[in-house]
Amino acid sequence: MGRIKVTQVKSAIGGKQNQRDTLRSLGLHKIGQSVVKDDKPEFRGMAKTVAHLVTVEEVD
After folding, report:
1. DSSP string spanning 2-53?
2. Which of 60, 2, 59, 1 has its CA nearest to residue 34?
């Protein structure tokens, strides 16, 4: 199974509550912070919800 690296690139200030909650569920708290997650549909969906705030990269 592959892995994805999710990096927060924009602030969640002024965003909707569900977007802020999604960032926290992914484990992101600051701009520039990255987390590596399994490439599962659950994490892909979370990343899609906040796609305008994060970047997603494939990691080996």
Report:
1. -EEEEEE-S--TTS-HHHHHHHHHHT--STT-EEEEE--HHHHHHHHHTTTT
2. 59
Count of beta carbons in the 10 Å neighbourhood of residue 45: 10
CA-closest candidate to residue 22, choices 1, 2, 48:
48
**Interatomic CA distance for residues 13 and 53, integer angstroms:** 11
- Give the model confidence (pLDDT) of 2-58 as tens digits: 999 999 999 999 999 999 999 999 999 999 999 999 999 999 999 999 999 999 999
